[in-house]
């Protein structure tokens, strides 16, 4: 492996090879929702899944959800500066626009770029995160080629609970959040509000276009809530919302004007969940998400531009128990609206209607899942996808799985309509995935190994010449292969919990033979923690091999290794103190060429919660 680590670090890597599915602990009894759109024990899920629990999120300190994801197996990120800057997340080498992102079941993202506003998602609102690797198009529709990431916010339960936190750290970072949650009679509720400010650091380095050595800070404000009311034993209705407002500076070469973005992420949903009879549950939900981005490069009207995506989706999901088996029937109607102040040709809409069915069965040691879906788009026509998975339990904690699935990614509005770039004739990208896995769970020791091979065709890239006109354009011309092996484990030695993962992957463009941009062939993530009375201390290591910043593989990004340390002290049953050090060795590295990354930073926080 081409990791920039010493022999000691390499020895630690070997010692940790038999160490966790991720830094998140996904035991056989963990309940997951995303993999099958219904609650299931992890032991009964065929898809490769990671769950990030509340404790890990709480000890992450200030920053962004992308920082937490970066520490998980099979995940890479790029970012154009600080935690408030534009961010991309790759799963198993897939493009950032080949991953579906959900927030409490509501799809978020820009229809123009095809990616989610990771920099606008507030950490203070998150209760847990589920990552499902591999194609899930049959359950979630277009774009779920590399996988699905679902973020769950806090829910009300039990006696009233009030929590609050305040923190401060490097780069004049300040953060605070408060939550009130609980249940009373038939009502459940949870509300959170928070803010985070940071002076940041220069988003670019010398050599970058528009380099300006000033500090580029960010400011994030957020509020979210959930309400659920049990009308009758067989009927629950509810509503939820989230609003996050991000103000973030960036560099464009101007020292006379405060160049910045204003970004709003909004979601809202209402639902009714009915237990029609003993075997049939029906859920009807209407949801809306908004991604609004304003860019301001000078003080004139010409320096301001606004681009907005609105997504409205109506889903009707029916889950029917047939003895020990389960049948799911799903209908979805989704409308995407785009508005662009600077580019009127981008102001358009797209409607997709979809029908899907999934069936899961367990017979003794055998577990089977099959699913199929039909999508009908007003822009790109009909697409059919299917998936099948099989699992066999050998007993004594050993299980094998195998699956096959097809998927597709819809062309973004940029790829269809952006002047002198998009082509309205562009077709969806297509994927076909094969994978096999082994899992061993002996209580104190868990080991996972997964092999996958995802072949992509009709990849949309910037191609020259452009059919029908001179110059370059987005065009269906390439093929890619995402192939790799992940080995992950966790165990406990004496008083120390050890967790880690190794990824060997080969994300390559088969048309050119080049490595896909900003994706490494080797990744490793390790962690260790131990508790001493009321104090818990831990360390995290993130290692990445070299990558290339461009599709031609001319601009090399060196490999890097990061060491993070943290400790939490439970001062009283209601009060805890967190101290975190990131990039302890003050490593200089790049996630994107000539864009800044933070050096050594610290963050401290007090948390208080009472019932």
From TrEMBL:
Its main location: membrane. Keywords: Cell outer membrane, Ion transport, Membrane, Receptor, Signal, TonB box, Transmembrane, Transmembrane beta strand, Transport. Residues 1-24 form the signal peptide. Residues 44-148 form the TonB-dependent receptor plug domain. It is found in: Cell outer membrane. InterPro entries: Beta-barrel_TonB (IPR000531), Beta-barrel_TonB_sf (IPR036942), Plug_dom (IPR012910), Plug_dom_sf (IPR037066), TonB-dep_rcpt-like (IPR039426), TonB_box_CS (IPR010916). Residues 195-584 form the TonB-dependent receptor-like beta-barrel domain. It is a multi-pass membrane protein. A motif (TonB box) lies at residues 30-36. Gene3D superfamilies: TonB-dependent receptor, beta-barrel domain (2.40.170.20), TonB-dependent receptor, plug domain (2.170.130.10). Pfam families: Plug (PF07715), TonB_dep_Rec_b-barrel (PF00593). Belongs to the TonB-dependent receptor family. PANTHER family: COLICIN I RECEPTOR-RELATED (PTHR30069:SF53), TONB-DEPENDENT OUTER MEMBRANE RECEPTOR (PTHR30069). This is TonB-dependent receptor.
């Amino acid at each position: 492996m081409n990791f920039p680590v010493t022999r000691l670090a390499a020895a630690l890597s070997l010692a940790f090879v038999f160490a966790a599915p991720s830094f998140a602990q996904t035991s056989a009894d963990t309940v997951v929702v995303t993999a099958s759109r219904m609650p299931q024990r992890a032991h009964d899920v065929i898809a490769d899944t990671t769950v990030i629990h509340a404790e890990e999120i709480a000890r992450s300190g200030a920053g962004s959800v992308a920082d937490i994801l970066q520490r998980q197996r099979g995940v890479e990120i790029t970012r154009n500066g600080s935690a408030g800057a534009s961010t991309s997340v790759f799963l198993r080498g897939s493009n950032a626009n080949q991953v579906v992102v959900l927030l409490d079941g509501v799809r978020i993202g820009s229809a123009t770029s095809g990616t989610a506003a990771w920099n606008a998602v507030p950490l203070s609102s998150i209760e847990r995160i589920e990552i499902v690797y591999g194609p899930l198009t049959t359950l979630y529709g277009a774009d779920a080629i590399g996988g699905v990431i679902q973020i769950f916010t806090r829910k009300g339960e039990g006696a009233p609970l009030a929590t609050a936190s305040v923190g401060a750290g490097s780069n004049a970072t300040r953060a605070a959040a408060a939550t009130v949650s609980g249940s009373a009679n038939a009502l459940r509720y949870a509300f959170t509000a928070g803010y985070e400010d940071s002076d940041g650091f220069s988003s670019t380095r010398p050599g970058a276009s528009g380099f300006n050595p000033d500090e580029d800070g960010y400011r994030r404000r957020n509020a979210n809530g959930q309400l659920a009311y049990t009308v009758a034993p067989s009927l629950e209705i509810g509503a939820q919302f989230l609003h996050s407002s991000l103000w973030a500076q960036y560099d464009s070469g101007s020292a006379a004007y405060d160049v910045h973005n204003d970004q709003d992420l909004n979601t809202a949903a209402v639902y009714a969940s009915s237990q029609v009879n003993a075997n049939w549950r029906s859920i009807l939900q209407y949801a809306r998400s908004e991604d609004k981005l304003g860019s301001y490069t000078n003080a004139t009207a010409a320096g301001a531009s606004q681009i907005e995506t609105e997504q409205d989706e109506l889903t009707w999901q029916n889950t029917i128990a047939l003895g020990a088996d389960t049948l799911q029937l799903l209908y979805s109607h989704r409308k995407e609206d785009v508005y662009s102040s600077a580019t009127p040709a981008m102001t358009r809409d797209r409607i997709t209607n979809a029908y899907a069915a999934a069936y899961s069965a367990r017979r003794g040691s055998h577990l089977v899942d099959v699913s199929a879906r039909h999508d009908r788009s007003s822009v790109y026509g009909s697409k059919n996808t299917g998936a099948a998975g099989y699992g066999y339990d050998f007993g004594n904690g050993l299980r094998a799985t195998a699956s096959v699935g097809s998927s597709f990614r819809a062309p973004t509005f940029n790829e269809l309509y952006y002047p002198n770039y998009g082509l309205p004739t562009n077709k969806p990208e297509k994927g076909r995935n094969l994978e096999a896995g082994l899992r061993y769970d002996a209580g104190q020791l868990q080991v996972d190994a997964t092999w996958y091979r995802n072949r992509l065709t009709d990849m949309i890239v910037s191609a020259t010449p452009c059919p029908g006109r001179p110059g370059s354009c987005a065009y269906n011309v390439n093929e890619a292969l995402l192939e790799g092996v992940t080995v992950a484990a966790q165990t406990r030695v004496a008083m120390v919990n050890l967790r880690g993962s190794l990824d060997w992957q080969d994300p390559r463009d088969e048309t050119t033979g080049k490595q896909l941009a900003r994706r490494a062939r080797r990744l490793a993530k390790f962690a260790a923690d131990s508790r001493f009375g009321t104090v818990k201390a831990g360390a995290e290591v993130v290692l990445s091999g070299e990558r290339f910043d461009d599709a031609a593989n001319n601009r090399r990004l060196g490999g890097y290794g990061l060491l993070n340390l943290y400790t939490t002290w439970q001062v009283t049953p209601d009060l805890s103190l967190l101290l975190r050090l990131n990039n302890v060795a003050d490593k200089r590295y790049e996630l994107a060429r000539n864009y800044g990354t933070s050096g050594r930073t610290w963050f401290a926080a007090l948390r208080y919660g009472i019932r």
